[in-house]
């Protein structure tokens, strides 16, 4: 059985406290990350985790210590990958710091474990592990409305339907930031002086969604959604779902039934049930 040490990223990139929101964002942008461990500058002790979502939830706060999650779950290098998969699947988190002798020595993400699921044999299918209510959007509705619904529902992606209820797209938090949009004033508000960094979609996608004033009222979901998205069948085996996710850098996929009807959404942490078992944390 593989251990966490076999799959973790050693010596992970971190941000330090005391520090600011801008410190965290710049570190994420430059390294194309969506979250970081936070360590104490004086001794390197793990103090918390900060993600882009934490920043946008507390958009007006500047002190990193007030933005980060302080109570973070950790794991050790000697724990098994099954232990890690159970934490991800049950807690639905996306970063797991690896601690040894009270020091941060690595980090594990669901993607690290998806690679393991991809290579294993399993009889579990997509429909076996869908565990969240599927929030949908209509392609013609105002983007500001949909973004607000995503925040309230705490979902990173929504399937997009047309007027007949057919799946025509997907809107993820990554799609809400345009690579072609470079707003120097907006970037400066986040403490980013190099406007070229605005193109890193996996870090700043929700910038314009942080407050409604950044979304023009005439903008619709159709303007930002990805058309004809990848999907998986409800009977698709989880190792195949893992393959699609890892090859395309997807964190989620719409799931369809026998008549191309939308069944729900499957997320990377759901797929890890192939390793963890599907006991819903009980």
Key descriptive features of the protein:
single chain; alpha/beta; CBS-domain; four-stranded mixed sheet; three-stranded antiparallel sheet; 32% helix
Overall description:
By secondary structure, the chain is an alpha/beta fold. It folds into two domains: about 5-110, CBS-domain (Roll); about 125-275, CBS-domain (Roll). About 30% of the residues lie in helices and about 20% in strands. It is built from 13 helices and 13 strands. The protein has helices at about 5, 20-30, 50-55, 65, 80-90, 110-120, 125-130, 145-155, 185-190, 220-225, 240-250, 270, 275; strands at about 10, 15, 35-40, 45-50, 95-100, 105-110, 135-140, 155-160, 165-170, 225, 230-235, 250-255, 260-265. A four-stranded mixed β-sheet has the order 7-8-9-10. Strand 8 and strand 9 form a beta hairpin. The model is unreliable at about 200-205 (pLDDT under 50).
